[in-house]
Design a protein that fits this description.
By secondary structure, the chain is α/β, with parallel strands linked by helices. The protein has one domain (about 10-220): Glutaconate Coenzyme A-transferase, CATH 3.40.1080. Helices cover about 15% and strands about 25% of the residues. It has a ten-stranded mixed beta sheet with strand order 6-3-2-1-7-10-12-13-14-15. The radius of gyration is 17 Å and the shape is globular. The model has no long low-confidence stretch (mean pLDDT about 95).
Length: about 220
């Protein structure tokens, strides 16, 4: 039986960006989360923070004429400046993170488990990982959302009972957004909230390495 289509990266970013309430200070991690800068819900003022020293930047630059060599977010992606944007020293930027002033951080993931533990810095097969600011963000943000593909390239599940890769941070994840589902980390387990169009709870469970609790109001993924 053929697997239903999975959500593409743009739709995944739109789903994650639903988490951004008006006035929120938001940090986006490297990889899939970077695209969330382009999908902030209309009518909401969201203050984007990049730990290397930007606060209040705009969407990703799409054309060479929009690129300012001084306005880059993490991942070396050029972004457009916005009125009121400020540059920060490294210590000031991390004071925002460690002071608990980030309302939402969206991070990529290699594994998330039932305890909300996150592994996202040490790719299997590589000698060393790349921690960056991820441990600080995952631990100190008021809400941590992991945006990742549901399975690895070899088909193995990335939502698991217990992480087998080195942890970035423990018990930090609140919500998981993947290309097939939206899952909340709760005291009662991993709660399946939404499924991609064409997917059933049973189909999501088959590609998940942890037992899911099915929400009574389970629905299809929405981006509004």
């Amino acid at each position: 039986m053929l697997e239903p289509p999975r959500l593409d990266a743009a739709v995944m970013a739109m789903v994650a960006a639903r988490e951004f309430h008006d006035g929120a200070v938001v940090n986006l991690g490297i990889g899939l989360p970077l695209a969330c800068a382009d999908y902030i819900p209309e009518g909401r003022e969201v203050i984007l923070h990049s730990e290397h020293g930007l606060l209040g930047y705009g969407p990703l630059a799409q054309h060479p004429d929009e690129v300012d060599p001084y306005v880059f977010m993490v991942g070396n992606r050029p972004v457009r400046p916005r009125p009121g944007m400020v540059f920060l020293s490294h210590d000031e930027s991390f004071a925002i993170v460690r002071g608990g002033h980030i309302d939402v951080t969206v991070l990529g993931g290699l594994q998330v488990d039932t305890g909300g533990n996150l592994a996202n810095t040490h790719v299997p097969g590589k000698i060393a990982g790349n921690l960056g600011g991820a441990p600080d963000l995952a631990t100190c943000a008021k809400r941590t959302v992991v945006l990742m593909y549901h399975t690895a390239r070899d088909g193995s599940p990335k939502v698991v009972e217990r992480c087998t890769l080195p942890l970035t941070a423990a018990a930090c994840v609140n919500r998981i957004v993947t290309d097939v589902a939206v899952i909340d980390v709760t005291e009662g387990g991993l709660l399946l909230r939404e499924v991609a169009p064409g997917w059933s709870a049973e189909a999501v469970q088959q590609v998940t390495g942890a037992t899911l609790v099915i929400a009574e109001d389970l629905r299809e993924v929405t981006i509004g």
